[in-house]
Automatic annotation (TrEMBL):
SUPFAM superfamilies reported in the protein's UniProt record: S-adenosyl-L-methionine-dependent methyltransferases
Protein name: Class I SAM-dependent methyltransferase
One Pfam family matching this protein: Methyltransf_25
Chain ranges of the Methyltransferase domain: 54-144
GO terms under biological process: antibiotic biosynthetic process; methylation
Keywords: Methyltransferase, Transferase
Protein origin, superkingdom: Bacteria
One MF term in the entry's GO annotations: methyltransferase activity
Length: 215
């Protein structure tokens, strides 16, 4: 595994909270109908494009990987945290989960029909995000689809903003900056959705969902 300088800190921090994280977040889709709809649209796009395998990158305890499988995708999960992967395998023994780095995936070039990055780029430092985005593009087949979710900056003109996260330092991203990084590696934006935070949410940040496809 090729490691970003930030990876050991992030990995160790998530190893330490893996069990609590799984208990608190494995049912997060239940009260998010829009996010379920976006995942369904992503799944339909992948199937229409040839129904290739889908990698859930930064899969955590595997609940979203399992949801993708329920949507009919041949999904597997990758996460840097061995503790998270252990929980994912325990909860979903029928699915494939691997320990890996988003900056150096053990996946062949152009082999995937889809990549899901659900809040997994939030801990990537700004200087390293182009490397990770390029890796997403490398493993996607032409026509393959990518769905990225993350917190958005307050002003789209601000490329990134750091914020205190309960686990480890995290970052918000400008939707325009993220789309630019994708264009640089041959991945074109299809749609973006910016969701305003609900009053009950812990973090009062807008959430970005960006759907794109490899040229």
């Amino acid at each position: 595994m090729v490691e970003l300088d930030s990876l050991p800190t992030t990995r160790d921090a998530y190893d330490a909270v893996a069990t609590r994280y799984a208990q608190n977040f494995t049912d997060t889709l239940r009260d998010r109908p829009l996010e379920r709809a976006l995942l369904a649209a992503f799944a339909e796009s992948v199937r229409a494009g040839g129904d290739g395998e889908v990698a859930d990158l930064g899969c955590g305890p595997g609940h979203i990987t399992a949801h993708l499988r329920q949507l009919g995708l041949r999904a597997f999960g990758v996460d840097a945290s061995p503790a998270m992967i252990g929980l994912a395998r325990e909860a979903n023994p029928e699915l494939r989960f691997e320990v890996g780095s988003m900056a150096a995936l053990d996946i062949a070039d152009g082999s995937l029909g889809g990549v899901l990055s659900r809040s997994s780029i939030i801990h990537i430092p700004p200087q390293d995000l182009p490397t990770v985005i390029a890796e997403f593009a490398r493993v996607l087949a032409p026509g393959g689809h990518l769905l990225i979710s993350c917190f958005a900056t307050d002003d789209v003109a601000i490329p990134t903003q750091s914020f205190d996260h309960s686990v480890v330092t995290a970052y918000r991203w400008s939707p325009d900056r993220l789309a630019e990084l994708l264009r640089d590696v041959g991945v074109s934006e299809i749609a973006r959705v910016l969701c305003e935070p609900q009053p009950t949410y812990k973090r009062q940040f807008r959430e970005l969902q960006l759907l794109a496809a490899k040229n």
